[in-house]
Structures are given as C-alpha cells and as structure tokens.
Amino acid sequence: MLNFRPIPNLLPCIALFAVSNACQTTNPKPGVIPTLRQWTGGTGSLILTKRSRITYPTSQAHELVSLAKVLREDIRAATGLSLGIALGEAPKPGDIELRLDPDIAEINKEGYRLSIGDRVELSAKTETGEFYGTRSLLQMLVLDGRHRSVPKGVAVDWPEYSERGFMLDVGRKFFDIRYLRQYVKFMAWYKLNDFQLHLNDNAAHDYSGFRLDSPKFPGLANKDGAYSRKQIDELQDLAAQYHVSITPEIDAPAHARSFTKYMPELGNPKLPKDHLDLANPKAQQFIDSIWDEFIPWFRTPNMHIGADEYNGGPGSAALYKAYINATAAFIRSKGKNVRMWGGLKTAGNSDGVDRDIVVDIWYPGYHDPIAAVNDGYKIINAHDGYLYIVPFAGYYYQFLNTRGLYESWRPTAFGKEKLAENDPRVLGGMFCVWNDKAAFPFGFEDVHELVKPAMPTLGEILWAGHPKEARPYDGFIADAKSLGDGPDVRIVPPKVTHEPGDLAFGKHGTASESPVGDFGVNTLFDGRAPTRWIASAKKPQWASVDLERVETVSRIVLKWVPDSQASQYKLSTSEDGIAWKTVYQTVDGIGGVESIAIPPTQARFVRLDCLLRPKSSGSFSLFALEVYP
Description:
disordered N terminus
C-alpha cells in the first residue's frame, strides 16, 4: 500500500477562539460516491456556462481526446450545457483543464487530483485516473441543485482496491446487449471497473444457455439470445471509453450442460448431465477449442474458467485438478491471465494445482480464503453470504444488506474467516447476480431494481475503504438516490400491471407464515409479475386478502411458482374475517395458472389454505392471488 501524504488545508482557521469568516464558509466535502479520500474546502462555487470549455495539451491529444469527448457528452446529459473542446489552448476562467502528470506524488495509477478555483484543473498519472476524476466532477454537478456549479476546493483521491467488480449471469437469463451497455456506464459512475459476464450455465428443467454466437460452433449459441462478435466488440469499445474491463467467464467442467447437449459424447451417463467426462480426452480438446475461438473476442487480460462445483465421483479429484491446470496453461499460452471460482476443497486440497490463478472466493466451505492465500493464490472476495443476489429465489439475498455492508463489512472478511485489512493478497471484491430462476417472469428492469442500491455501496467500500468514517449510512443512501445511475443511463422501473377487475390488486393480506420484506404475503397483490410469497411446506399454510369492503366474488386466480404448488388446497371467503365458508377444494392441484370459478359470493376476505406439500418442493409459493367479481 502506498503512503499518501495529506495536502495542507487551503483555508486554515488562524484564531484559537474566534473562528474566521473564511472558516465558517469553507466548503464541506462533496457528497460524491465513492467518498473523496482527501478534501480541502475552498469558499464559493465555480459555475459552468455555455462559454466554459474542456482543454488539454496538444502533446497529450492521443491519450485525452476520447476522454474529453466522453466528458463533453456526459456534461451535456447531466446539465444540458454543450461545452466546446479547445485542444492546446491555455485554460481560461470557467474552463475544465485535463492534464496527465506522471510526477504527482500523492496518488496511484487510478488516482487523480481535482482542483477547483476560477477553473477546474484535473490531473492524474494515467488516463484511467483522469477518467475517475471526471466522474467526481460530474457527480458534484449532479448534486448541485442547478446542475451547473461545483464547490471550490481540492480533492486528492485514489482507490483502496484494484479489483472492483460486478458479475451478471447472462447464461441462464439472456439480457440484450443494450442493457449491458447501460451497465458499463452505471458501473463507471460509481468507479467499479470489472464487468464479468457469466456466459453459460444451466437451470431447472434442463434449460441451458451459451451466449457467444460463432459460426465455428453452429447450433451451440442459444436461439433465445446470444451475442455476436460485432456486439462484443462494440460493447468493449464503450467499456474502453469508461475504463471498465469486460471479463468473460466460460464455466466448465460443471455447469456445462450446453456443451454436453452440443456434443453428447462429452458427458458420462454416470455423472450429472451438466458435467464433462474428464476421463474422455475429447472433453479437454473441446474446451481448448472453445477458448481458442473466443479468447480473441476479448481485450481484457483476464479469462475466467469457472471450474466450480464439479463432483465427478470417486477418483475424480486428480482429473479435476488436471483439467484446471491444462485449461489454465492453454489460456496462458494465448497471453491471458486466468481466474476461477474457489472450489478446490471438493478435490481434497490444492496440491498440484497451478498457483498462478486468481481465485474468486465465493464459499469458504469449497475453498478456504486463508488456505488459498497461504497456498500462494491471489483472491477476490465474492462471498455468497454477503455479495450474492439471486432474484426471486428466496434462498439468497433479493437485495444485498447494504447497511450491514456499509457499516461493518470489509473485502478481507469472509464470514468467520478474516484476513488483515489491506492484505495485498486480496485484490478486491465482486458482487454477483445469479439468475437461477430463469423460468420466472422477470427481466432486466426487475434485476436492476435489486442491483441499484448495491452498486454505489460496493463502489464506496472498494474505493474508499472505510465509508462509515466519512458519513452515516442514511446520508450515503440519500446521496446515492440523488446521483442515480449516471448521465444518459435510462433503465425504466419494473412494470406494475394488473388485470382489469382484479379486486385484490394493491390490497393488504395476512398469512400464517409471512417472511418480512422481499417474500411477504403482500407480494401476491402488488402487480409485479416475478414477486412471490413463500411459506414452508413442512406444515399447512394460509394466506388471505382484505378487499376492504364486501364485494361479489365469482372467480379466483392462483398463479403458482413452478414446482411449488399445493397439491391439496381450499379457498374460503368471509364477510367479517371470523366466519369462513369453503367455496372450493381440491386434492389434485395442477400448478401453473389456475382460474377457479365459484358461485357468486359476498365476501370482504378471501383465503387460500395450502394443505399438502408438493412432492418437488419444500415450500408453497405463488406469484399472485387475484380476485374477480
């Protein structure tokens, strides 16, 4: 870790007992995210006008021309101002001056120095550092009520960790390339720098996805969505402008159902369907051919080989280790670095496995972080207990516990396992979205709602290091809401819809077992297609809705979550919530969408009793309970 020297205060208080007027008006630290590491406040503000310009030296045109254009477009999106670019001209009051300075002592290669007086002076050792300075400048503009002024002062800023990542599972759930482009900008807004795409995986009912479409492998890419090389190139063009790496992950030898479907001889009938048969030399040859084709698609130095949750049965540990070594060696022969998910406990230990691999520690039960670093691995914290979002699943976070993360979590903490803060063997952290429930009716907008509070939180922790020492969590969240997703990022909120005549829409319910928050009973009536109520099927459960007044009810619709229906249930109505009348009962619940006609009944309350657990699930679960006249 570099030693950074503090910069002197520009406007010190010179009286011991009488505070000067200058001190009273010194600008506080701006509420940008991540928090500025150092800030010396000046007094007053600099107001940008239509005469303000972006300037940079002619000698640095090659490095800064793209950045100047991005900054101009983002200022236009944030403020409506269209600034000119003045190459090689001396900066004037009101201008923004960009300049590379390799001799700045206070910062590392991603850091920057931002001085705001009668003009803005932004300097950094690298173009990346200069870019991050523009994000802070833009955030100051957004936080200003007029979106035109920035507080005077000097900021010196740098990241705590080099790896600041987000992983999106597009293997199970395809998301259009336009969403990935939006997320490049969203990540950069909060100074995250590594966008990992989980490009293949399998889900329930033998669904599998592989999302790179190459004519060399006809039929391997999914027809319901895949990316062409042109799309990946254009995504990386944008990512380069925003200093985000696109890291591809191709997961094998488990999670490889796409490959065993494509070439059935790669599987083994004695193994799970998504496992490659590593005793078959064709499996390694095929994976090498996959990487040989797709490595040239990606400019990042890092390729991710997956390699998690392989259970090939007795005697498979040596084959599993040999697969990791061979795949890593092949990728390294192409000039790339290698990453993998931590999973070597399933092979007994890491003996004999290549140490020149960066390991994402996601579950210490599969790969202990302390053992990993002691074995010589560099690691990234992706701990599932803190950093996994699995939309609408119920067994991982729906929303990350951002308050807990902000106030107490550090990237060197892995549950009970902890390394010393700032241990250089921990490169940083990554939070992840896993779309296990691919069949559920959700889209990118729904995922974005879950990710939105996590992005600034992880950006803050991984860049600023000790966020709670900078501002309280509630103030941080208020600033994040003001800052939004970044200039020109337009992701619409999730759809709220309901069928005409649904008397239960927007009403409140009660239940025998109602988890607080994400999976409570009121999700049945919220008009959101993917939200759901969950209750344990170890005993009978019930859920009811209050229609708020007595209505005529003649039809009830149940929208069951796949494989979580009650095989035996009954429907009841009541005018007062005390005396109930059974209006329908079955011992042969079929799941899916059940529309049940009943004799017209006067009711204020409608209740579903789930009486017998489904064979295929440990829970009862519905997306919606609708009531019609």
